[in-house]
Write a structure and sequence with these properties.
Length: about 260
Amino acid sequence: MKQYIVDAFTDKIFCGNQAAVCVMDSWISDPLMQNIAKENNFSETAFAVKEADLYHLRWFTPAAEIDFCGHATLGTSFVLFNFYEKDADKITFKTQVGTLTVEKQGDLYRMDFPAYRLKKIEVTDKMEEALGVRPLEAYIDRDLLLVLKSADEVRNLSPSQNKLKELEGLCIVVTAPSDSPEYDSVSRVFCPELGLMEDPVTGSSHCMIAPYWCDRLGKEKLVCYQASERSGVLYAEQKGGRIIISGKAVLFSEAEIFIGK
């Protein structure tokens, strides 16, 4: 079976977030998809099957299937536009979170995602113990968003994985205003519940980061920097209850994987 590895939210290999992408004629079994994701050991492996005029898209971490993944959607879009749908300018995906559309504009892939709702909650001692610094604000939806004072605090975090697991949220997202004129926000994302201490670049979490900073900065469009070791840049635009997340991607490998008969 053909498998591609794409570095998402970057234009350089060895940066951004890696996603393995398998485009199939028909579905293989869920246990087999899980084993492929486990063997790849990337944060996510994406599986896509064409159904009429759209693609059914699913995402697996090494531990489990998840309902939404931004960077693997970008990786899948890159593969489809460049290898399967070369004349298309838009691709529609059927997913567990609904219909997602992606448009190619030059070297950017514009992904139309649902915005998360920001429910403000109390900052707790547990949050401070997990991070090593006390957040200024906290919000919850699928993820837990913790706002810090400065970009330096975000970059220098060395959180406790065990204590992060005690917090609410699928992922723990920390963010602060950027200290560089190139960007509006800086963030890092930790996902111990998914078996990931830190996710390199996280499109889905920017469906929470972007509404927060659009509101605070009075902007409709943002340039967001994720300050992981691999790092990445995301372009976010708020449109009603949707967030347009745009990014670049680059192909690292194209190979055959042997999954047995």
